[in-house]
Amino acid sequence: MKSRVKWLDNMSFVGESASGHSVVMDGPPEAGGRDLGIRPMEMLLLGLGGCSSFDIVSMLKKGRQNITNCEVEISAQRADSEPKVFTQIHLHFIIEGNNLSDAKVARAIELSAEKYCSASIMLAKTAVVTHDYKVIQT
Question: What local confidence, expressed as pLDDT, does residue 4 receive?
């Protein structure tokens, strides 16, 4: 897998993925940016949320669960000094569907965190990563 990040100006960059997609990254004005895009560390959290959600939706569909929505709210703490790595990350999943099995939702989240989500497993090397969930029957 390859990606590329190109400096635009000030503190703005464009990231290009191997699959042909692009995203603008920028810093806040106090760091020389113009606040034109997402912060790079925010992208790490979004990647984590996307990776784990992809796993969970896939597993629930394979388990014949009638899932209609999946959201994850992510909160994180960073170290106070450089390098300001994530030290704590919490993912709160909100899973909606018809006749969802609470046990299957819990198992999908557990499998994603412990076996399938590369982002979660990698970030857990420096941060305490926790999960919880809410099931909404529709």
Answer: 97
Give strand pairing partners of 13. 7, 25
Q: Check whether residue 80 and residue 107 sit in a common domain.
A: yes
Range of the domain at 126: 40-137
Peptide bond before 40: cis, by omega within 30 degrees of 0?
Answer: no
Cα dihedral 37, 109, 123, 89 sign: positive
Q: What is the dihedral of CA 38, 19, 69, 71, to 10 degrees?
A: -30
> Is the Cβ–Cβ distance between 12 and 34 less than 8 Å?
yes
Residue 71 near residue 110 (C-beta atoms within 8 A) = no
Q: Specify the pLDDT at position 113.
A: 97
Q: What's the mean pLDDT when you consider all of the chain?
A: 97
